[in-house]
Amino acid sequence: MSNIALDRTDLRLLAEIQRHGRATNAELAQRVNLSPSACLRRVQRLETDGVIGGYGAWLQPRAIGLGLQAFVRVQLSKHGKEAIAHFIDAVALWDEVVACHALTGDMDYLLHVYVRDLDHFSAFLLDKLLNAAGVADVNSSFVLRTVKEFRALPLSQLERG
């Protein structure tokens, strides 16, 4: 995706949508000092341009029984296109993995995993991850406490002086 020109009003609008995703168009318009019709046109353009990729609710993991969170670093034994594609296809099927990032450095991928408990994590690790073809090594870290979690992107960095 190419860089899309965003002005200050676009950035304010995006910040409001990130914070208050259920706000009505009239509420958004008021918060960013636009008319409702101008606000709607901007939101539709941001959606069409792919800046806004969708809408959703932020669930609280513990409230729904997902009490254990882990970050798992994965090293592959081979780095050819076929081996990478096979790993990526496997990860896509694992519900426990909410994010997977390709990395630089000594490990190839970082998985963000949510599970019910240690038994569930053990089953995920032994039955899925370690059985995936091409996985050479894994290193897991469990989240003890979340110090900061803000899912919205830092739009203030994009403002032009």
UniProtKB/TrEMBL annotation:
CDD domains: HTH_ARSR. One of its GO terms (biological process) is response to amino acid. InterPro entries: ArsR-like_HTH, AsnC-type_HTH_dom, Dimeric_a/b-barrel, Tscrpt_reg_AsnC-like, Tscrpt_reg_AsnC/Lrp_C, Tscrpt_reg_HTH_AsnC-type_CS, WH-like_DNA-bd_sf, WH_DNA-bd_sf. PROSITE patterns: HTH_ASNC_1, HTH_ASNC_2. It holds the Pfam family HTH_24. SUPFAM superfamilies: Dimeric alpha+beta barrel, Winged helix' DNA-binding domain. Signal peptide: none annotated. PANTHER family: LEUCINE-RESPONSIVE REGULATORY PROTEIN, TRANSCRIPTIONAL REGULATORY PROTEIN. This is AsnC family transcriptional regulator. The lineage of its organism: Bacteria, Pseudomonadati, Pseudomonadota, Gammaproteobacteria, Lysobacterales.
